[in-house]
């Protein structure tokens, strides 16, 4: 067991600077999350990378933005720059439900308490820093900044907003997973550059005067997007922009993007190629304590940390390209996988933690079963502009061999200190059915067998998302018939091992392309399969997804054709209630709705058996009551006779 001292964490107070003998810092990071020194927390990763490049770095976690701003001043002026992130989640998703109701908790705060960060944290923090230290550059990053790097629709303000550099006044933005651009930036600063003069690092964005010459114009081809002002006037122009933004974000050899906004010209350099095994190992192998900073010891557990403290992230990226998901926009569609050596080294660290009880909570990633999956011929991937490698069909160039995953599961399972290593991340079931994934069928059955027999913690999460083929097409998800096939394989594997581990399917209502009748069909089909749905949600529009563009414009960005979307509260409630057809309070509304749609047949299939079941339960309940009353009467009669006999004596 390793005993840590305070200087094992990156400093978050002036006292901790003094312990290190430091008088000032090169970089000060401002984060909306509590500081957890773990590779799953972005501020820790960025801080450790800056440290590994030889710079002095400190973190100000969850500064108070409503008082005299002393938190922003406590380290003074850094030599190089301030770095700003909202944390691991977009602030607005963290703060509000799909119905725009304020959440009462925050999983990234000690004790789970809400109220420790502002709305639009990146914008708020940066404006404060620019007022306090106008001459110090500000570099922004993390998911909130990344997904707002161009003109975007904001669901919470219900309007288009300009890129976040324009809103906040920051000098540079690092988008996506920031290790590679950040290392390049730190090396240039070491060489004497000022942050404001760095214009040729991939995966960064910055602004210049609207009529200024384009810096480093010979490095990349340039694709100009419709200006922010045109997007404000014309929804079709805004929708058309997105196709280019998504494609250039997911190409190995992408173009540079520019977009005019006000007096400025936004310049978005193309991304780095996917991280190599050595590069991603280098990030995960940094000297993290893997623990929250000791300052939180008396403030309660940090829920997000408690969820992942005994988990292992094996890879990054997702080639699913789902229309509602931001993973490919932030992490990219190409999967970067860690080496077995790096993973097993982390398993050793986890199993050596003092409160480890033998159970690894997750061996996974954004999608659990994408570890080591990549293109067979890289040159084909280099030319590809498709946002998904598995929709509408699995790409013939994609190597979907699940053998490396099966092997790493077995090796972790064989660790002497591991009782069970669970796969807690959701899996892509479409990669596990021969009807959809026609390649590497010989690796599927051993993978499912290993997964089912050793790595499921009671229930397995999967995300078919819908049953309607039309809606699934908009979602970029496979037909629901493949889920039926997967369930057969899964049930067969459970039976083989004499296990009862139910599937927990996830579904979304109010997604673009989904109508009330589609939700009714979803309810009927899942009911016929024996499901009473638990993991359900309303679609939440977040920046930089196909579905959000459709929600705002009513147009699909790739075809510019209209797509229906439920937008009002009433329309959303009408769709959401179908998930809970078995609740008595919903049944009259569901019946009326389906009769009005001319689908009384669906109402009969969905509700009549439920009513009969309810009637049975009522009869059963009445019968039990009657029997209980009869027993009570008999007992009373018996007791009365006994008392009478005693009196006679």
What is the average per-residue confidence, as pLDDT, rounded to a whole number?
93
**Overall number of structural domains:** 2
CATH architecture call of the largest domain: Alpha-Beta Horseshoe
Total number of strands: 24
- State the CATH topology of the largest domain: pyruvate-formate lyase- activating enzyme
Oligomeric state of the chains in view: single chain
Q: Low-confidence runs (pLDDT<50, min 5 residues)?
A: 613-633
Query: Roughly how many Å apart are the termini?
Result: 77 Å
Strand content is 5-15%
Rg from Cα = 28 Å
Helices and strands in order:
Layout: H1 14-20, E1 27-31, E2 36-37, H2 42-52, E3 57-61, H3 70-73, E4 81-85, H4 91-95, H5 121-132, E5 138-140, H6 143-146, E6 152-154, E7 159-161, H7 164-168, E8 172-174, H8 179-190, E9 204-209, E10 222-224, H9 228-233, H10 235-249, E11 256-261, E12 264-268, H11 277-284, E13 291-292, H12 303-308, E14 311-313, E15 315-316, H13 327-330, E16 336-337, H14 340-351, E17 359-360, E18 362-364, E19 374-375, H15 378-383, E20 398-399, H16 403-413, E21 420-421, H17 441-454, E22 460-465, H18 469-475, H19 481-496, E23 503-509, H20 516-528, E24 536-538, H21 546-553, H22 569-576, H23 584-596, H24 600-648
Parallel strand pairs: 1-3, 1-4, 4-5, 5-8, 10-11, 14-18, 17-21, 22-23, 23-24
Antiparallel strand pairs: 2-13, 6-7, 8-9, 9-12, 11-12, 15-16, 19-20
Helix pairs in contact: 2-8, 10-21, 16-17, 17-19, 20-24, 23-24
């Amino acid at each position: 067991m390793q005993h840590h001292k305070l200087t094992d964490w990156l400093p978050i107070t002036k006292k901790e600077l003094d312990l290190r003998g430091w008088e000032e810092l090169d970089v000060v990071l401002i984060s909306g999350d509590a500081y957890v020194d773990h590779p799953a927390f972005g501020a820790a990763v960025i801080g450790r990378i800056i440290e590994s490049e030889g710079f002095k770095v400190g973190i100000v976690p969850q500064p108070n933005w409503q008082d005299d701003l002393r938190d922003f001043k406590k380290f003074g002026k850094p030599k190089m720059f301030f770095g700003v992130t909202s944390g691991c989640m977009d602030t607005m998703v963290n703060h509000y439900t799909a119905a725009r109701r304020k959440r009462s908790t925050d999983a990234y705060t000690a004790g789970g308490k809400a109220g420790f960060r502002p709305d639009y944290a990146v914008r708020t923090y940066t404006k404060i820093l620019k007022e306090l230290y106008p001459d110090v550059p500000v570099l922004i990053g993390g998911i909130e900044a990344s997904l707002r790097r161009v003109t975007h629709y904001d669901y919470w303000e219900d309007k288009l907003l300009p890129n976040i550099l324009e809103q906040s006044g920051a000098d540079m933005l690092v988008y996506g997973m920031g290790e590679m651009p950040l290392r390049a930036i730190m090396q240039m600063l070491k060489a004497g550059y000022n942050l404001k003069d760095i214009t040729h690092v991939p995966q960064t964005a910055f602004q210049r005067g609207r009529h200024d010459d384009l810096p480093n114009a010979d490095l990349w081809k340039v694709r100009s997007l419709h200006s922010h002002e045109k997007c404000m006037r014309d929804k079709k122009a805004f929708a058309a922009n997105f196709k280019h933004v998504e494609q250039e974000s997911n190409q190995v050899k992408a173009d540079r993007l520019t977009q005019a906004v006000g007096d400025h010209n936004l310049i978005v350099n193309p991304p780095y190629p996917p991280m190599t095994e050595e590069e991603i190992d280098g990030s995960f192998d940094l000297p993290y304590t893997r623990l929250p900073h000791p300052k939180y010891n008396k403030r309660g557990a940090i829920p997000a940390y408690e969820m992942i403290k005994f988990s292992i992230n094996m890879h990054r990226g997702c080639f699913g390209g789902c229309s509602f998901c931001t993973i490919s926009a932030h992490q990219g569609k190409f999967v970067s996988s860690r080496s077995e050596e790096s993973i097993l080294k982390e398993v050793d660290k986890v199993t050596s933690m003092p409160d480890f009880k033998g159970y690894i909570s997750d061996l996974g990633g954004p999608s659990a079963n994408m570890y080591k999956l990549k293109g067979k011929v890289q040159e084909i991937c280099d030319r590809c502009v498709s946002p998904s490698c598995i929709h509408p069909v699995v790409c013939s160039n994609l190597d979907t061999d699940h053998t490396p995953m099966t092997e790493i599961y077995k090796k972790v399972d064989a660790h002497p200190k591991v009782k069970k290593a669970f796969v807690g991340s959701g899996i892509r079931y479409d990669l596990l059915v021969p009807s959809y994934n026609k390649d590497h069928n010989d690796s599927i059955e051993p993978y499912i067998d290993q997964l089912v027999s050793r790595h499921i913690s009671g229930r397995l999460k999967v995300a078919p998302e819908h049953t309607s083929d039309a809606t699934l097409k908009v979602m970029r998800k496979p037909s629901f018939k493949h889920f039926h096939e997967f369930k057969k394989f899964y049930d067969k594997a459970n039976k083989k091992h004499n296990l009862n581990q139910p599937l927990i399917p996830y579904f979304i209502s109010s997604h673009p392309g989904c109508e009330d009748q589609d939700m009714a069909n979803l309810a009927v089909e899942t009911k016929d399969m024996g499901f009473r749905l638990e993991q359900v949600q309303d679609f939440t529009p977040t920046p930089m997804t196909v579905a959000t563009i459709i929600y705002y414009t009513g147009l699909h960005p790739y075809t510019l054709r209209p797509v229906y979307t439920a937008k009002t509260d009433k329309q959303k409630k009408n769709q959401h209630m179908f998930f809970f057809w078995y609740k008595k309070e919903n049944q009259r509304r569901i019946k009326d709705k389906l009769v009005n749609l001319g689908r009384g047949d669906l109402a009969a299939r969905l509700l009549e058996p439920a009513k009969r079941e309810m009637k049975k339960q009522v009869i059963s309940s009445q019968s039990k009551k009657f029997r209980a009353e009869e027993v009570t009467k008999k007992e009373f009669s018996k007791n009365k006779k006994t008392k009478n006999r005693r009196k006679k004596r």
